[in-house]
């Protein structure tokens, strides 16, 4: 269960970032990102380059993929991730589902449930 949770979390984070860069065309703003054009951009009235940056490179995608990879790394070493990680992912996902219900929020929710079940099983086995 932990392995599948890690895979889903990694896939979800990576897919969000890659789809934003490619399908939504955020990568076409990379020149502005690296030229310093965002340094003085108004966050209340963001430019399209700044919006693309926050949707892709600086979105939740890269950190979420990193968390998924850490979960997989722990699983390979037969270490159970902490349960608070599953709870945090579940609460964050449900909050996102309330704010934006027409998103693929069930995927990280399933990953959170799998992670919680897997960590609880690992704790019981260790006791």
- Per DSSP, the total helix count is 6
List the helices and strands in order: HHHHHH
What is the overall silhouette? elongated
Share of helical residues: 55-70%
Write down the domain tally: 1
The N- and C-terminal alpha carbons lie at a distance of 19 Å
Q: Estimate the mean pLDDT confidence.
A: 95
| Uncertain spans | none
Approximately what portion of the residues adopt beta-strand conformation? under 5%
Coarse structural class: mainly alpha
Radius of gyration: 17 Å
Could you give the count of β-strands? Answer: 0
What is the chains' assembly state? single chain
Largest sheet: none
Descriptors:
transmembrane helix, membrane, transmembrane, about 130 residues, elongated, mainly alpha, DUF6463
Structural features, described:
The structure is a single chain. The protein has 127 residues and is mainly alpha-helical. It has one domain. Helices cover 69% and strands 0% of the residues. It contains six helices and no strands. Helix 1 packs antiparallel against helix 4 (61-76), helix 1 (2-21) packs antiparallel against helix 6 and helix 5 packs antiparallel against helix 6. It starts with a helix and ends with a helix. The model has no long low-confidence stretch (mean pLDDT 95). The chain crosses the membrane at residues 51-72, 84-100.
Quick overview of this protein structure:
With 127 residues, the protein is mostly helical.
Task: Spell out the blueprint of helices and strands.
Blueprint: H1 2-21, H2 30-35, H3 48-55, H4 61-76, H5 83-99, H6 106-126
Transmembrane segments: 51-72, 84-100
Pfam family, one: DUF6463
InterPro entries: DUF6463
